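input
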Amino acid sequence: MQRRDFLAAAAGGMTAAFAGCVGEDDLDAAILDETLTLTTTTSTYDTGLLGDVNAAFEDRYGVRVEAVAQGTGAALETGRNGDSDVVMVHARSLEDDFIRNGYGVNRRDLMFNDFVVVGPDDDPAGIDGLDDVLDAFETFAETESIFVSRGDDSGTHAKELDIWDASGVEPGGEWYREAGSGMGEVLNQADQTDGAYALSDRGTFISQRSEVDLGIRVEGPIEGGPELLSNPYGIVAVNPGVHEDVDYDLAMAYIGFITSREGQEIIAEYTVDGEQLFFPEAVSADPNFQQYVPEGWSTDEE
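output
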């Protein structure tokens, strides 16, 4: 699919664009009126966070942001094909593969929240308040309690598979249902299925909590739960050495903005029903230099 065709297809419901209005004297003429294509997770899109971030970026630089919401795997594939300029996702192992294979450069840690296990208030599986998410997943299999999986190669799906693997359980059977959909649709399916559970990022659950009769049954590390449920987000520019038509300058301007103090404050101040959804981590007095390269990478590698 040609880049212009991809953008035209994405515009039908999967694109968020916010036009900025600033004086030309305040802008770099090389950036003014350009369009940045950002592929990102459904969680950053559905929660509304990108509306605030992108509007501020557009006001600053006088550009458009075409934000295409996909699962992490699909978002990275879009970048791999050269159909986006920058990728914002939340599955470090998939990001590392993207970088190791030469498709991404200049990765930065961006923000974090966590995952939670949600389910009905009557809690038929009896997992409410468990400290160990592995115990909860093992209980789903033992009791054959309905579990709705993303099943879509997203960051949430990758985390879910990590948990099943760590628990030693091979999910399957009628109780394990793969939706192949975004987080919002999975929450709706779990809500509409009697006794069903799901793994959700906290931000999307909070933003949709008023629309579903589900509650948090197992907490993530933000509320004292297991570190296994941590959910860090990264941002990566698509490598212009692989795809000449990507807008690398604009991608780096966006990365610079969203990881700046101003961009990080927008993330920190974004709330739904008074609750903070994401926690910035790009600005630090003690930066993690591992963020720039794949985990485990060293100069000794051949």
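quick obs: Confidence is low (pLDDT under 50) at residues 11-29.
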